[in-house]
Design brief:
A hairpin with a 2-residue loop joins strand 4 (60-66) and strand 5. The protein has 2 helices and 5 strands; from the N terminus they run ααβββββ. Helix 1 crosses helix 2. The chain has a 3-stranded antiparallel sheet, with no helix packed on it. A two-stranded antiparallel sheet has the order 2-3. The radius of gyration is 16 Å and the shape is globular. The chain has one domain (7-75). It is α+β, with helices and mostly antiparallel strands. Keywords: Cell projection, Cilium, Flagellum. This is Flagellar assembly protein H.
C-alpha cells in the first residue's frame, strides 16, 4: 500500500503557521521592518502565461506591512518526495 502525502500542502501549512519564524530564519535582515501583527494570508493567486496559455497558481501569498507600507510576500514551495539521482 502506498502512502501518498501531499508534501507541498504540508510545507505551505508549516510556513503559514510559522511565517514569522520562517522569515526570521531565512531573511533575518527583514525582521526589523516587518509588522508581525499585520500578516494576512491571501487565497491562491492565479497567473496566466498569455503566450503559452498555461495557468500557474502561487503557493503562498502573505499581505504584510513592511517598512510601514502594505506589501506582499510570495513564498514558492517545491517539496520533493525523493532525492534526485
Amino acid at each position: 500500500m502506498t502512502n501518498n502525502i501531499d508534501h507541498d500542502r504540508l510545507f505551505k501549512e508549516l510556513i503559514s503557521t510559522f511565517f514569522v519564524e520562517f522569515i526570521e530564519l531565512f531573511f533575518p535582515e527583514l525582521m526589523d521592518y516587518l509588522d508581525r501583527d499585520s500578516i494576512t494570508f491571501l487565497d491562491k493567486e492565479v497567473f496566466t502565461d498569455v503566450t503559452e496559455g498555461e495557468r500557474y497558481e502561487s503557493d503562498l501569498v502573505a499581505q504584510v506591512k513592511f517598512r510601514g507600507k502594505e506589501s506582499f510576500f510570495l513564498i514558492h514551495v517545491e517539496a520533493q518526495e525523493s532525492s534526485r539521482k
